[in-house]
Amino acid sequence: MNEKGYSLVVAMLVISIFFLLGLTILSVAIYQARFTEMRVEDVESLHEATQAIEEAVAEIKVAISNPSFELSTPRNLDTQLAALFPDLARRYGVKIQDVTAKDIDRNKLFTRVFLLSKPYGSKTVERRVILTNTPSFLKYALGSKEDVVLDGGAYIDGNIYAGKNAYVTNVANYINNSKKYMERTSFPTTSKNSVLFVNGSYYSCDHKKNACYNIKDNVFQRIEENYSNDVRFQSQAPSIQKEREEFIDVDFDWTVKDKLLNAAGIETFSQEYTAYINKSTDQLFHELQAQDNFAVLKSVSELREKIDSIDRSVILQSEDSSLFFLDRGELNLQNKWLIINGDLFLGNSVNTPTKVRGNIIVFGNLTISGDIELDSTIYVFGPLDSPNAPGHTLIYNANIAGWNDKEVVLLSKGALEIARINEFENEFKDEPNLKGYFYTDSNATVYAVGSYIHIRGGLFARGNTSGKAPDADVSGLVINAYRGAATKPQQGGSISFTPPPSLDQKEEARFIIHHDPSVFINRGEGLPFVKKLNLVVDKLIVK
Fold first, then answer.
1. Is 169 left (phi over 0), alpha (psi -120 to 50) or beta?
2. Cβ 503 vs Cβ 171: under 8 Å
3. pTM here?
4. What is the pLDDT of residues 111-148, one digit of tens each?
């Protein structure tokens, strides 16, 4: 009897344990089902909020491309937007907030900044969009209307534009003591949100398997049979697609004339502006000067002495010299333009950086060297009496920072050469050594093999089909970048390299670029003007 009772107790105990286990499993299952349901609802809400913002942005793009959305005056733009946005906000349930900076003159500029947001749950999805009448090249970290060649281990945070073809290799070409060399390294790396827009075809070559280049006629020439119809990146690659939006190009000559007229105090779209804009740049310059639209000074020292008391833009020209040096101290042009009729050197001849604030047109060539802080837009046009000699820009041994957290937008009609930046520097810093956007209307080749180049802004070579990029067999933009440490040249001329422990280590890229869309906001009247509106869309943020 006692044994039967004991067995019954054990049986009841086992049944109770299994019952409790069953209840626990059921509770966990119900909790997981509810958690999954909540997670699915959360994801669906995020998707709905994101989609609403994307559709609202798409409608804004369609609206501003409509011929009825006419660029007449900035105030008329505000009127058209005020009629457009309430309906969009209501239909998509989004909030559209005007966050245009106070220092943007709404009577003169078409730049507007808006924040589109929509809540989901306890969070909010938001995206900043910038409406501007500036050319498309400013939207990209790197690019060309012709070909783009990425040789070696660059790191690119931002979108890349190739109007024709894109080529990617894991070899960095370089020149030392007039001799050409090739060094195998990593493929380039991009940030996870980067997009490679290729309107032609894309190709890659693995230098480990087959040589990507030979040196012929003093040019690095691609060995085309060793390139495959794909694209290779190291560790992190961009998404690849064709650019569906119209590329709004810059007319360099027209833009410089537009800025000359603005410098002379003549408003865009005015009758006087219309009467002048179709003249040649040379004729326009001399007519405006003869009409006393500018203060004409003969030296930099005179400019420094009188700039605060002058109420007009300034022409700097001299019969004694065609080269002007801004190589010390501070120069604040305030709201005036500085027009250099000659060549210009920007840099420092002392231990402290030279600082310049204000917009500049150079009718000559430009050289930048040393430490300088800039809050400027600079146009390098070339000599007025030599239309077939476009202005050349050389940046070497330079550290270009922003003045008061601003930047430079530098546009060169002729060649742009960036060389010997922090040469053999192996301390890979987070801070950029070139802050700004650098553009050439021609072709460009950049070497970051012995150099260390870190740009916050952008780099674009429009391309010139009548010529090739320096030392290359393509038209457009060519970037050469080693990943790892570089030491001074060895006997014989080649450079000694030390690769990083892992080629995936993007921090040791000797060419780094982070796209910065703030140039649309900060540069204001100095930016190139085009007759179409453009919508620049920033990253999607969840808060």
1. beta
2. no
3. 0.85
4. 899 999 998 877 888 999 988 888 999 999 999 999 99
